[in-house]
Amino acid sequence: MKNFVFHNKTKIYFGKGQIENLHSEICRFGKRVLLVYGGGSIKKIGLYDEVISQLKKAEMTVFELPGVEPNPRHTTVNKGAKICKDEHIDVLLAVGGGSTIDATKAIAAAAKYDGDDCWDLIKRKAFVKETLPFCTVLTLSATGSEMDGGCVISNIESNEKLGYFAPDNNPDVSFLDPTYTFSVSSYQTASGSADIMAHVFDMSYFSLENRMDMLVRMQEEVLKTVVKYAPVAIEKPNDYDARANLMWASSWALNGFLYDGLSHATVCHAMEHELSAFYDITHGHGLAILIPRWLSYVLDEKTAPIIKRMGVNLFGVDENLENTEGAKQAIKALENFYFVTLGLKSRLSDLGIDDKHFKTMAKQACGWRGGVLNGFTDLTTQDVENIYRLCL
Ligand code: NZQ
Ligand code: ZN
User: Is 170 touching ligand 1 by the criterion CB < 6 Å?
Assistant: First the structure.
């Protein structure tokens, strides 16, 4: 285990009705707020009205940026940053899922950047020195963006989807009310749940080095929580306990606690972001398709015990099985969970994806890491292309 500093500045209000504290929190940061949201789900569930009434109570001057896309675009971020500069915005408020929150994070940084294209920051041509404060109201349990400093933005013209992580880019305050997720579709619930699991898997669970027993056990508890409650939320969308467990699991999977000090490979995220960049698919669904095929590809005598352990602890695979056989059964159980229990389609071809861009995608996925994705096992561009083909 490496030395580490654990610091997470996000203040969380968790539970039903906590929005009533929004007015007293947001006015700490100033009087002019940019409200950022997506394609309209917050209006359908009445949350928009609740938020506006809180902002009125705080006597804020409200500007709006609606229409943030799933897989948020850099052009939308630029639009938001321009409003912030033109209107001297003091604070941002994201109301929505990971895409809305990520766009808001990027706007918070771009608003303080002298240039007019946030893509300079995402591509590290310029560095984030300062950001505007921002709060979030989460409506979809998935990305952990409500309690982390990560942010992923897409440039559709160049087929790039890139993330950056800045510890100071965490939300200042996040409101997590599970009732706001009652309206999330079964498809987005399934994809979001797969994303939560992928954060635990990808950040450190599937790693040969720097393991710490306490953290591995806690990672498994978060994973088991998703395995238990995602099917309940799909069957009974208004089940408060199920939605609450998924919501808090989403935040804990990626807020640093479960993996600070361990190795972070994020190999599957690197591969998935290329799928989203080229085909604009739902992030968690892409991960669900990739992860079992990736595990089969990297299965060897070193990785087998850890893959088997996942099967034993999450899905009741027989622990007396020999490691390789146990690992194979663990992968089957994981596939069954994603594709039968959660009902996600299992192949890239089901999403209209063929092998046309696989070579470029594999090169781009490895490009950021010097040509090789280091992780559970190291993957070359050829390996990544082979894994995409296994998913077809
Ligand atoms: O746009 P609206 O109308 O709000 O509809 C959204 C969208 O269509 C809908 N939705 C959200 N809350 C809802 C709801 N529908 C009904 N009721 C509600 N309460 O769901 C759809 C998907 O929303 P989106 O925000 O795109 O989903 P998600 O939260 O999964 O975010 C995905 C984005 O986050 C990035 C992904 O790559 C992707 O771009 N990630 C961000 C991370 C981070 N910041 O740390 C880490 C992740 O690994 C991930 O890469
Ligand atoms: Zn993810």
Answer: no
